[in-house]
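Student: I would love a firmer grasp of how sequence relates to backbone shape in proteins. I am handing you a single protein, as its sequence and its fold in token form. I am told such tokens are a discrete way to write the fold. I hope you can help me see how the letters and the tokens relate. Take your time, and here it is.
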Amino acid sequence: MSFFARSSGKAARTASAEPSAAGPAASPASPSPATAPEQADRSSDRAMIDVVEADVMTAIDGVGGSIIATRDEVGRMREGVGRIRTQMERLAAAAEGAAGMTGGMLDTSRLLSSTSERIAGAMDQAGHHLATAADRSVEARALLAELERAGDEIASVVETIAAVSRQTNLLALNATIEAARAGEAGRGFAVVAGEVKALAVETGRAAADVRNRIARLREGAQASGAAIAAMTEAVDAMRPAFATVRGVTGDQAATVGALADEAQQAAAFVSGVSRDTSAATAAATDVDGLAQRAESASAAASVQTEALGRRFVAVIRQTEMGDRRRFDRYPIERVVTLAGTSGRTIDLSRGGVLIEAIPGLRAEPGARLVLEIERIGALTVRVVGISTMGLHCAFEGLAPAAEAALAATLAEVEADYAPMIATAQGMARRMAAVMEAEIAAGRLTPEILFDTAYRPIPGTDPQQFLTQAVPVLERLLSPLIEPPLQADPRMLFCIPTDRNGFLPVHNARVSQPQRPDDPVWNNAHCRNRRIFDDRTGITASRSTRPFTVQSYRREVGSAWVLVREIDAPIRVLGRHWGACRTAYRF
């Protein structure tokens, strides 16, 4: 017989054994007798489930390890990208500084080029003026030579005049003497002779003055000629230097022009480097952002992988083939003493106990321990597993007194839970009945009812979802889930959940419209249309046992209280739709 065939057959047997509405709420104290073939099938099924569980958990562990390795590699990549970005930022700063310097150098080169051009122009003008001065000095020397010759000629004429003046003065003297000899008759002639003599003297003085002036003019002309000659020699001596300076200035102008071109090219290159560096920095920032998101995604995937492992174990343990428990477990909190330390029980059944994790206690799976449970006594147990929940133990060789005390305790607990189990199972049947009636009336289809395309409602925080069935389920189930809360003040909620932990409907007091930007208030007052797929939620949603009992601590109002939850599966037209979850204060 195949695995799935055995599964289907067993599911049918379990379903037929499920209590009816009029039957007992709690499971029987001991398992119903089974034939040898049935026991063989169950053993084979459990062995196969164990193999599947081990393989899946190994795969999950492998994926988790790969995700952690990927996250570590992404973290190292982020560190490397961070260092690259830091270096690129430094390079960008250096490129920016270099751009400023090359820009300044370009401006200076342009100014120097302009100055060199003006110097070259000034040197050209100076050379032109120098050549003009040389030409003018030659002309001046010629004019001075002409002036000196004219002076010599004037001096010759003046000497002639002076000689005539001396002769005239001598003649006037002789005439005066002769006039005196003539007496009265020569008086008039004497007067004329005196005037002539005076004129000759005056002419002599004027000639002497002109002679002196000509001498000074000749001296000045000679000095000017000497100065002009010296200037001409200096100008002639400066001409090679000016030619050299003009050549150097031209070369300098050409060099400065080339330097300006190179500075412009350098500025353009540095500007390009700066742009490329900025782009590289931006790219490094983008890569860092991508790496950060990848790291966050890896971390989220790691968390999801761990959650998947827990969820897989929780889900497979709720299947009829994967459930290793022969007895129902009930949340019972009792003091337990073990290996000199004390702790508390979490749940208890006729087959074993779950003990909260005790710090410092070392126990490996397979180890046998002796523990003492409050009001039950000493018990021998075998450790069958260790999880985040605590120490999972199975009873072995119970003494009659301990077995009787255990049975009495469980009977008391079963009696306490019986009404709550009946309520959960009754509500599950009522919910299934209204769904089936709606399908029969043609107002709902199985495809819509079992729709798992959860569409996020925009703007909700925490996230809420819609499916095609939500409007119908709100109309059908909302009136059903309020009366149980009014009937029992201990009840915290009575809600339907599909197989994936989605709550299409919740009790009215926590189904209020969300407030914008207030996720804390929303989380407490807007719990409808949300997915609760934690261990408790998925255990309730996926369990196909007649009922499931769980316990946990939950914040109610301003205090944390111990909650006991009783869940019953909802089957619609023979298909497992989900569960009815009910919870009570202890």
Observations:
- The chain has nine helices and 15 strands.
- Residues 1-33 have pLDDT under 50 and may be disordered.
- The longest strand covers residues 559-572.
